Amino acid sequence: MALPAGTPRYALAAFDFDGTLADTMDWFDGMIEEVCARYGLRTPDPEERAALRLHDAREVFRKLGLPLWKVPAVVSFLRGRMAASRPGLALFPGIEDALATLHAAGVRLALLSSNSSENVREVLGPRVWAWFSEDACGSDVFGKAGKMRRLLRRQGVPAARALLVGDELRDIDAAREARVAAGAVTWGYNLPDVLRARQPDLLFETPADLARLILAD
Q1: How many CB atoms lie within 10 A of CB 8?
Q2: pLDDT in the model for residue 140
Q3: Mean pLDDT in the chain?
Q4: Is the dihedral of CA 31, 165, 170, 53 positive or negative?
């Protein structure tokens, strides 16, 4: 069934935060040695860190020797550490403009991140935070599909008119599991060719592509 003229292609766009909206990759990279020492993991050298970006999260954890049962503790530790670093973190250039365009076009925006609401809200700032109709932060690293399904129910949006945008392979997988469209940004953790091979529905090569492709007929 065709949508009425002027109706956005997607009624709901849910966004990952780290590596998608916020430029936090250098911060996470700077935390690797501390995390590895604290949790008894093998510390990768710079060359291996770059190579890890070719893999999904489960494989990265396996290569670092991080068992899945320890992941929640590591995520909680990083959330706490980031709280002290928030003033030095920022959105990628062009992200605020893209979100403003989507919001003005009537697309409902949501946050779907394993980071904390407090960290996300502080980095977004009050103006951008107010554009989001729902905050589903604090999710498990592999819990985004369930969060997305619950988000659809609360918002009353059919899966066919929803999109999950992230920077990792696990975000594409979560979108597929939730039966929503998968959008991948190429400026985050996983490398562009790796993301392309997973065949997301939309591939964003610049922040300006977010509004252009999400609003395309």
Answers
A1: 18
A2: 82
A3: 93
A4: negative
> Which residues, at least 6 apart from 45, have a Cβ–Cβ distance to it below 8 Å?
none
Q: For the segment 18-46, what is each residue's pLDDT rounded down to a tens digit?
A: 999 999 999 999 999 999 999 999 899 99
pTM over 0.85: yes
For residue 160, count other CB atoms closer than 10 A to its CB.
Answer: 10
pLDDT at 2 exceeding the cut of 70: no
Tokens representing 12? 């709901």
Strand order in the sheet with 108-111: 132-135, 108-111, 12-15, 162-166, 181-185, 202-204
What would the two tokens of residue 75 be? 């995520």
Torsion sign across C-alpha atoms 214, 21, 178, 101: negative
Per-position DSSP letters for 136-167, written without gaps between them: --S--TT-HHHHHHHHHHHHT--GGGEEEEES
Burial 74-102 (b: 16+ CB within 10 A, else e): bbeebbebbeeebeebebbeebbebbebb
Q: What is the mean pLDDT of residues 137-162?
A: 92
The matching CATH number, chosen from 3.30.1490.190, 3.40.50.1000, 3.30.450.40, 3.40.50.10420, for 12-24+88-214 is: 3.40.50.1000
Residue spans of the domains in the chain: they are: 12-24+88-214, 25-87
| Rounded Cα distance, 186 and 166, in Å | 9
Q: Please check the confidence at residue 1 and state whether its pLDDT lies above 60.
A: no
